[in-house]
Design brief:
- The strands form four sheets. This protein has a three-stranded antiparallel sheet, with no helix packed on it. A three-stranded antiparallel sheet has the order 7-8-9, with no helix packed on it.
- The protein is an alpha+beta fold and about 180 residues long.
- Helix 1 packs across helix 2.
- It has five helices and ten strands; from the N terminus they run H-H-H-E-E-E-E-E-E-E-E-E-E-H-H.
């Protein structure tokens, strides 16, 4: 959670006292810039910890941003979505039909070997599969983590919060200048 201190709010209100809704506009614009940074920074931070393909993460991440307004100085970024197929992480071998044991790493520096897994092209695309029984079918596709689970990693959350806090603090100064100079109607 990112918060603007009471001192900062009072300071903004004092500086922009003569401007109608000036403090609210400055605060909401700064908060929204911080929210935007969280959304874009999430992919970068996830790629530092996990081996997921950027395109797979972006496609699977159902990200919603509720922006702050002059009437409601609170904003929220939520990440949701379904699990990403294991094949979209670091998997060897990459090619279907290669008769080698499948090894997969979801987190950088990790890895697990799957004794019974295989890589195949199915109707819904290439993936890592395991048979449910000794018969040919049915098979289950092995899945990795969801976008929400990856962004929820403590290290990633901490870094995103720190970055957003910095952006809000910097933008607050910029927004005060903008409003005092007659912009931001």
């Amino acid at each position: 959670m990112i918060e603007v201190s009471a001192e900062a709010i009072e300071r903004v209100e004092r500086i922009l006292a003569g401007v109608p809704k000036g403090a609210e506009r400055a605060l909401s614009n700064a908060i929204n810039r911080g929210l935007s940074r969280v959304k874009t920074g999430a992919t970068k931070r996830v790629k530092e910890v996990y081996t997921v393909q950027s395109s797979a993460f972006t496609a699977a991440a159902n990200t919603k941003v509720s922006k702050a307004s002059t009437g409601n100085l609170a904003g929220v970024v939520t990440f949701a979505g379904c699990k990403i197929p294991l094949y979209k992480f670091q998997v060897t071998p990459k090619a279907p039909g290669v008769r080698k044991r499948v090894k997969a790493a979801v987190k950088k520096g990790g890895g697990t070997q799957f004794e019974e897994a295989f890589i195949a092209n199915m109707r819904n695309g290439t993936g890592v599969f395991e048979r449910e029984t000794s018969k040919r079918f049915p098979v289950d596709e092995l899945m990795g983590l969801s976008a929400a689970q990856m962004v929820g990693n403590e290290r990633i959350v901490q870094e995103l919060q720190e970055e957003a806090q910095e952006v809000i603090n910097e933008r607050l100064e910029h927004e005060i200048e903008r409003i005092l100079n007659g912009y931001g109607g």
